[in-house]
Fold these 2 entries.
Entry 1:
Amino acid sequence: MISMSGKAIRKWWALFALPTFAAFIIGFVVPFIMGVYLSFCKFTTVTDAEFVGLKNYARAFKDKEFLHALGFSTALTVVTTVIINVAAFAIAYMLTKAIKGSNIFRSVFFMPNLIGGIILGYIWMLLLNGVLAHWARSLTYKASYGFWGLVILVSWQQIGYMMIIYIAGMQSLPTDVLEAAAVDGASGSQTMFKIIIPLMMPSITVCSFLCVTNGFKLYDQNLALTNGAPSNLSEGLAMNITRTFYGRVGWEGVGQAKAVLFFVLVAVVALIQNKLTTSKEVEA
Amino acid sequence: MNSEKPKHAAAWTVLFSLISIAWVFPIVLVFINSFKQKAYISRNAFSLPMGKAFVGLENYTRGIETTDFFASFGWTLLITVGSVVLILLCTSMCAWWIVRVNNWAAKLLYTLFLFNMIVPFQMVMFTLSKIADTLKLNTPWGLCFVYLGFGAGLAVFIFTGVVKGIPASLEESAMIDGASVPRIFFQIVVPIMKPSIVSVAILQAMWIWNDYLLPYLTLDLGKYKTISVAVQYLKGGYGSVDMGAMMACLVLAIVPIIAFYLICQKYIVKGVMTGAVKG
């Protein structure tokens, strides 16, 4: 059904919809379609593309560094998603209670989010290298140092963000349900696991979704903290793809194939995970 | 929820105070090291800038000079403000058009915008930077247009959600009174959308101000650098990093952000909560 005003508004498409649409075509739709096409081509500059079928994908899967980066990103995503959500949930839970100074604490925890990834990377490079200097080592000594460095950095950055989302969720929990539980003599852990967590499922969905996609897409922090050292062993997916494009001549097509795989991975993970957690949501 | 006092409330305050101090420590450490001579920074990051290690503002003058920091700051500001204004104006209009027209074209457009939100940047990185180059969008102004294109998804998504909650009857009666379509949008719809406009502005500004790859790949780096790009340039190719200049630049990059945060904290927190609908 189209309303009267809808008909009048439709005529104004050139003013209202066209600017965004034009930018969207240039900034997203065309690059995306070209990207998919080029993943089946051999090319160096876009204009000299030559169709090669699935060769790029075959090369991507044979690339040991790519598989390593995939493992690295997956491990990083799993670890950070768990740490960030547990910590953010616990902090949010305590800070919704009447604790003196809780507003200041919230502000402090949130602050790192506003700082860009490159800057964050160098802040933590200074701190972690300073600590490791006691053993005459640095972050680039071993890949696992870079891994845990990134875990610390990403947790520090995102706990505050997820905390804000959890606080908003907790503040809108229905008080009557919680009061009823208290009257019925539910223990603290019963209230937490049988009532609060199930009711918080929408927030948990959102936060874990954000953590998972952020984990896979991580690039700036990775670049600044270790730049993949030693020998690309602390390199995540996003970084491996970028380096394949710009650091290895003759590999542009493979880079694009990896990017398509990366997109499929992010999309699938997002969809599955969204399905899983939304199905656990309950109504109060 | 239950905002009753927990047991041992004072102990919790002490605990959280300690964690908060640990939380700001990395930033304080950068600040302290920005006054130290570069050799001392890597040798002992935790010592105070005293005696021979103290160099006053030397790191700052050197850092500002090598990175041309104020120019980068200006370009970052221009790109962020320009892109945010463009995004707010164009996507709010587009979202209203999509909801009110609601025909196949509008629905297709909306689906495309939703799709945009799950595509990682690496997917379009190479082709987008080539296209931007060909179309001469490699200037700060051109970059604003690119940001409108790549960042449209989330903004349109949030705005359509808001417009759906506004009853069309208000607009219809204004139309009967003879108001033109643009006038209805700017005088009736925009004031209602104001809180969400602020939220979207904050979300986009946080993203664009800190973005590294898109400006790095599209801008003509000989002429324009953003702060993130300039800081990364300090690291250079294979040579060692000038840690003194680096610390000074980090401080210069962080201070304005924290000032902005302290002023606009309320809106920033609200913006984050609006953005969380993304899941």
Note: Chain A touches chain B through 103 residues (CB under 8 Å).
Entry 2:
Amino acid sequence: MSTATYAGVNVELNDEGFFLDPTTWTREIAIELAKADGIDELTAQHWQVIDFMRKEYFDKGTGPTVRVLGKLSGVTVKDLYQLFPKGPAKMAARIAGIPKPKGCI
Amino acid sequence: MTRQIVILGGGTGGTLVANRLHKHFSKHHEDVEITVVDQDDHHMYQPGLLFVPFGLAAHSEIVRARHAQLRDGVRFVEQAIDRVDKDRNTVVLQGGFELPYDVLVVATGATLAMDETPGLTGPGWMDKVFTFYDIAGATGLETALAQFDGGRLVVNIVDMPIKCPVAPLEFCFLADWYFTERGIRQRVDITYVTPLDGAFTKPVASERLTALLEEKGVHLVTEFNTGEVDGEAGKLIGYDGREVEFDLAVVVPMHSGADYVGRSEGLGDDLNFVPVDKATLQSTAADNIFAIGDATNVPASKAGSVTHFEGEVLVENIIRFMAGRELKALFDGHANCFIETGFGKALLIDFNYETEPLPGHFPAKVGMPLLKESRMNHLGKLMFQWFYWHALLQGRDIPGIGADMPEAGKEFPETHPENNKETASV
């Protein structure tokens, strides 16, 4: 666990950089997180995915898998990889300020 | 008036729930009719599928008649399901026949969604691309492995959730043993390709299983999301552009709930699994609908042991529901899995929603070793098939194995208490 400051807000992160408390997230923070992850500008399509991830998290208690993202976010899996090249489920979850989506066992 | 319990699916969950409910209601002389519906009469001992490719089990040994597993007095209807009409409390079968119900149990498991991966069943399918998750694939793979003289064997999970998440790992371990026995292990390159970031989903077990893959010389490719299978060229193509080449691919396809769930308005989620309360197993769609086993969306393994433990909770809740009482029995997410590691040994893992698989012993300080290879665990795995047909399906309790996860023999980490508080989720 560590703390970091983004857009002037102190947030707590786990060892892999995921938010411990998703309610501390703001859109300004997302812009900074994206830049740190190599995305210079968050497009409308990025936001569509980020908003969808947060909605899923708050509705279901967990972030969606890539498959669910591809089915329901309105963005195809191929495009998701263009938008979040390091892996959509994890990278978008980090930028969306929600915990890491886990594989169901 | 006779009350109707309709159970969709005559597999592990449907059979054990039907038998337990029948035992209860006939003992109390209550006027309840129990009907089990399935599209065929072949009950498969699914854990046996893992052994078929290696010549360790035959089709005939792992399949029995569904109706023969049900107690006398339970009605069996062999017909495909068209849909559930929850507003009319009615199941519509294909052909138009209708079954009204007072209580419905969805126990139709998970379905293999081969079509979701382009190329999977294209050129090379059942020739150098197989799955062992159905009997045709497992049987075909037996021949393919016997003819395999060396090259690249790739074992791939397309996406979670899947049934028995440890089975693809077991396949790697058994392949290592199988080719060693044949004296050609040095000519076979085995690679495990997974969408997860390690060998398994939970940290302590993942670390142990990743080490075991390494000990056995199995290569590991992580965070690989298979976008396409090119059987002709012999490669898996990931969405991120990575490629893994193979001479023989063993692919675990995506899983969905049963198709009719998708045709039943309001019953399932986007993947056709049935959302339920993870503790009571009551459907969120209607109070008189329950679900069990692989068919549900609960954040537990899709595994027979989970279904078995859920069965006790579910039966108690259905009895309470029919008596107009509050649902009480609570499922804790308990799973208990033997992991076959080859050379006559196996590991055992035991965990629930809150506690990840930990080392120690099961069920108490003296018992079967957890997260550690042993001969005893292998014998346990073999013996289990007998328990399955003779005790579990019949609704008898298995001595020493209860629905709640035992904590007595487990070694809880002292330094990272949060490690064992992770909740599994999709």
Note: Helices of chain B lie at 12-27, 59-62, 135-147, 167-181, 203-215, 259-263, 304-322, 375-392.
